[in-house]
Amino acid sequence: MARGRKLASLPKRLWACAAGAALVEFTIVAPFLFVLAFGMAEFGRFMYQHQLVQTGVRDAARYLSRIADPNDVAEQTKAENLALTGQVTSGGTLRVANWTAANINFVITSIPNAIDPGTGASPYRGANPLLVIEVSTNWTFTDALGVHGFLGIGSGITVNVTHEERHISE
Fold it and tell me: Is there a contact between 104 and 80 (Cβ–Cβ < 8 Å)?
């Protein structure tokens, strides 16, 4: 009889025992904590690389806005190098590993800036015509920790970055 009473009271004793409660709670919460921690790390890495791409595109647009002929292919190659590596000569270390010159586009638009006979002034300050240099790129952020795959986002996030500068004429 004593044995039957012990078996009958076993669920009550297990329910009242708090010895393994912390382990069970941690087992339930741990996956969410790990996803949150790795997700924050990946988001920080994404923001850092996005800032590097933005800086490169801005540098390329500023470079082209300050040279005599922004349509010159050799100067555009230097601007690509400047965007990718931070220097106009080739062979530098890439700012972002999977970003290539094939992803960088240059669009130079000519805007009329003739003097208005009625006012005697041009609509914009500068030469006629004004040149607007637009540098754009698309770049794919690749996940290093596998958080995208775990969350079902896919293998990478494609980001488009654009910067415009007005050509500074002498």
Answer: yes
d(CA 61, CA 47): 21
Is there a contact between 55 and 82 (Cβ–Cβ < 8 Å)?
no
Alpha helices in 66-154 (DSSP H): 73-85, 147-151
How far apart, in whole angstroms, are the C-alpha atoms of residue 151 and residue 94?
29
Structure tokens at 118: 């009625």
Task: Map residue 80 onto helix, strand or coil.
Answer: helix
Q: What are the pLDDT digits (tens) for 44-60?
A: 988 999 999 999 999 99
Query: Token digits for 53?
Result: 């791409």
Our CA dihedral for 68, 74, 76, 77, rounded to 10 degrees, sits at -150
Pairing between β-strand 104-111 and β-strand 130-142 as defined by DSSP bridges: antiparallel
Helix (H) or strand (E) holding 117: none
As a whole number of angstroms, the distance between CA 78 and CA 115 comes to: 34
Q: Where are the beta strands (DSSP E) in 45-155?
A: 104-111, 130-142
Q: Model pTM?
A: 0.78
Q: Which residue has the tokens 């004793």?
A: 13
Structure tokens at 90: 């080739």
